[in-house]
Amino acid sequence: MKYLFLIICILFSLISLSQEEDIENGLNLIKRNSLYLEMGGVAGFYSVNYDRILEQKKSGLTSFSVGATYWGKIDYSDGRTNFGIPVSYNYLIGKNNHHLELGIGITFLYYKFLFQNLYSKEEEKGIASSFLLKCGYRYQKPTGGMFYKVTFTPLLDAVRYYKKVINISITNTSFIEKGFGNNGFFPWAGISVGYTFKK
Prior knowledge:
By secondary structure, the chain is mostly beta strands. The chain is elongated and about 70 Å long.
C-alpha cells in the first residue's frame, strides 16, 4: 500500500508541473492532464497512469502516458512480486468528447517469483520489457472532467533476463539457472476510469 501511495504522489507532482508549463506557454485551449486507473491493459494486471496531451492538430491530438504498477507476494508458498512502468505515445482521432485512440509503447517490469513446498524451494528474479500497441475508444472532454476508455492492448515480449535458484531439501543440493528468454505474444485488453483536471 505504501508503494501505491508513493506512485500517486509522484503522478500528482507531474500534473502540477505540467499545469505550470501550460500557463507559461499560454496553452490553455484544451485541458491536458489526466490521472486514471486501468484494469488489465498496458501493465497486465492494473496500473495507475498519468496522461498528458502534447499537441493539438486539425486531424487530432497527441499524448504521452506513463504509469506504474505494483503487487506483492500472495502467500509464503507461492508468491510473486512485480513492479512495472508502462510508457506510451498516443494519437487521438476525433472531435469534442469522443476519440479513437491509437498508441505504441513499452512496459518495463521487475519481478520476483517464489514457489515452495516440503521438498524444494524455487526462486526466480528478473527484469523484462514488452512492446505494446493500443487501439480503442477514449472519452475525454476538452473542458475536463470524467475520463474513461476501453482499449485492445496486445503485448509482445521483447526481452527477459532471469536468474533462477532451485534448492532441493531432501538431497540438500541447489541449482542455478540464468539467461535470456521471452514469453511470446499476448492478446490483451484494458478498461480505464479517471479524471481530466480542469485547472
